[in-house]
Structures are given as C-alpha cells and as structure tokens.
Amino acid sequence: MPGVPSSRGCDSCRQQKKKCDLKQPVCTRCTRLHLKCVGSGQQRYKFKEQPLSPASQHDQYPAPGHMFPAGSPARSPSNESTMVAQAFVSALQVTDLRYNLSTYGTFLYDIPRRLGSNAVLDAAANVMGSAFPFLHARQYPPHVLVRYGRALRTLRTCLDDPVEAPTPNTLCAIYLIIICQGWLGKADGNCPSHGQAIAHLLRAAVLREWTSTFEADMVLTLCLPVILESIANPSLRFDPTFWDNAMAFTRRSSMARESSTGQSTIGLRRLAKIPDFLRFPDPHLHEITATYQRMRDQSYRMRHQLAQWSRVAPSSSMEYARYRAAYCILVALAVTLNSILGAFDPSNSALAGEAAFFCEEIATTAELASCHRPLGAGYASLCLVAAWAAVLDPRQLARIEGILLEYQTDFPEVQWFDRAVWLRTTFANLRQRVAERASVSDFEHSRLFAANEACVVL
Questions:
Q1: Which CATH number is 40's domain given?
Q2: Residue 222: CB partners within 8 Å, gap ≥ 6?
Q3: Domain count for the chain
Q4: Residue 280 carries which DSSP code?
Q5: Enclosing domain of residue 439
Q6: Beta strands in 286-336 (DSSP E)
Q7: Domain contains 213
Q8: What pTM value is reported for the model?
Q9: Torsion region of 432: left, alpha or beta (phi above 0 gives left; psi -120 to 50 gives alpha)
Q10: Which end of the chain, N or C, is more open, meaning fewer C-beta atoms within 10 Å of its C-beta?
Q11: Cβ proximity of 419 and 233 under 8 Å
Q12: Rounded CA gap, 395 and 27, in Å?
C-alpha cells in the first residue's frame, strides 16, 4: 500500500471538497465564513491497496508439494521429570525477598540437574513447584495436596531402602517436604519422624565421601536448624564424634569449593553444645561463660558491620538480608546463654543489661525484616521465641509478644508460643533450682558458723 500525496487544503475546505487558496494564516473561504482554519498547507498522504501481479503471487506462495526448511518450534515439557524441573526452576527464578527460595539454602539451585535420578527427590520437588504459586494466597488446590501425600508415601518407601536412604538426594527430599509441610499448614505431629530422619541422615552424611558443593552446602544449611530444634527436643541428641566428623567434613568441603558459599563453619562444634548447656548447665558453667563472651563480642562486631553496610547497600539486597539474619540468630543464641548465666548470678547487672539489649535488638531486627515476610524473614520467629523466653521487662515482653503474634500469622500451624513458653519455663525452673540450692547452702553455712561460735564460747 504505497502512499500518494493528497490535498494541502485546510480541514474545512477538504471536508466540503472546496478548493483552498492556502492563504496564511487564514484562507479566503474560512475568512469569509468565519471558520477556524486548521491544517492549511499541510502535506497529507493517502494509502491505496496495490494488487499483486500473477508473477509476484507466484513468487510469494510456494507451489503445491514444494518443501522448504523451517525452524523447529519451541518444545513444551514432554515428560513428568521435565515438567517438574520447569516448575521448580520457575520458583527459583523469583527474586523478591518475600518469596525467594534461596532463604532455605543456596543449594536448592542445584536440585533441577538432579531430578530424574531419585524418586523421592522428584516427588518433593514436584510438591514445592506445585505449591509455590499459591503460597501468597495460602489457598492450595487439591492436586497440590495429592502430590504432597504422594511424596510422603514415596519417602516412606525410600527410607526402607538401605541403598537410597543415606544418599544426598534423600536428605534433600526430606528437607523440601518439611518446608512444604509448613506451607501447606500440616501440623508438626503428622510427620514426627522428619526431624529424627534428618539427624540420622546427617550422621551418615559426615561419614561418607560427599565432596560436591551441593552436598557441602546442604549439610551446612541443615546443621543449624537441627541444633536449634534439639534445644527443645531431647530426642535429637548427637555424640561428640558426630561433630568431630562434621567439622572434618566441612573443612574438606570448604577446601574443595574454595569457600564459594561464603558460609563459615567456625563454632559449629560449640553451637552444638548449646542443648547440653541448657539441660545440664552446672558442669559446663565455665564453657558457657566462654561461649557467651565469644558470641557477645561477635554480635557487637556484626552490628557495627551492619550499620556500615546499610549506608552503602539497600536493605532489600540478598547479601544484606542474609547477614542480618545471621546477626539475629547469633543474638538469639547469645541471649539464651545469657539467661542460663543469669540464673546462676541474678545480681549481675551487666548480664541483665546485655539481656535487655539483645532482646531489643531481636525485636528491632524482626520489625525491620517484616517487609520480607513470609520467607525472607522466616528466621525471625525463632529469634523472637528466644527473646520472649528471656526478657524480664514487662514493656519489652509486651512488644516482643506483639511482633511474634504478627509473625505467627505467616504459618499459623507452627506453634511458636508453645516453644516460647517451654523455653521460658525452663529458664524459670533453672532460676528456682539455683535459688533453692543457694538457700540450702546459706542455711548449712549459717548452721556451721553457729556451731563454730558455740565451740569458741565453750
């Protein structure tokens, strides 16, 4: 459709099909009729259809039966493994901190290449990829729940297989199922063996020659939540040999991958002793004090680093968010040890001041991280539990409780307040036991002193 020149007359003359004299600024006809003269002298083009000649038609369309090469169309997923991988990759590509799956561990990015080789990992990834699009609305269609049930059945079968059970893929699958369990609102009691299964497979993991980045990152990621869970779950016990093997394993893995994940394993053995510190504090008082001082000093350094970092990096950056999460978890562990030491030295004003400061830091960090809920601030709930259990000031207690209530709405089935009450009761019982023992000791001391005085009088 080539364009050909059209009339240069004004709009009024063209509309009435009158010849325009193109006078400026107003043509003669518009002046005489007192009309608004618009478009006078403007070049216009009219487009007309150009019919194709027989020759051009012959060139444009191929003869019947003529074959010519064409590009292959984009392939859609053709089998179940491909579709599972595509859904999982789509979930991993979300960069919004509120729904960024890397908060569960960077090793998740290596899962797609492992799909198709392990049935339980395929089933777990299928559940996560299917449930993720509905996470923001918390309304899951029936097919997601069906896939979750299928993953549980596949897991039970896998755990009965002595060959498949102790593999990295099985350990990873259990972790994914536990994550989905929280998303779907399934009560913790539905699968009570998952925590024990992770602990059991971790014991196997450090005894095997697992040297890839995927395996190293996975073990490092799972060690911390297992330690934290074992604080309130006495059945999750680890002997010292396990942590010796874990430290040796992480050292070998760090050298193999040249610290590519940026995670530090310093203090892993010391962190693993915190459950025993809480249950049997008396024989460990010296070690508790040393560990607390290290954590306190490290938290001060991290707080200073965060303050400097916030001036140059946006709070929405993944690196900043991870560092803030590590800081909050460290402070939560520190305030737990502070409460143990405070029970043995209730008149220590320095410990009391540090406890109040740590609780305030946890509350403030949780408030700042609230904009990244639910996934990007998932660590805050557990830290708030530690702060709620340790805080003594009523105003601080009310503030922390209010923040924890907000976080509770993210995953209502996780009973955070039950854990907080258990930990607070544990601290109270420890203070009472130490106080009663001190009273008995004072009574024995006074009776002995009175007996000595009587001997002197005689």
A1: 4.10.240.10
A2: 171, 175, 198, 202
A3: 2
A4: S
A5: 284-458
A6: none
A7: no
A8: 0.74
A9: alpha
A10: C
A11: no
A12: 83
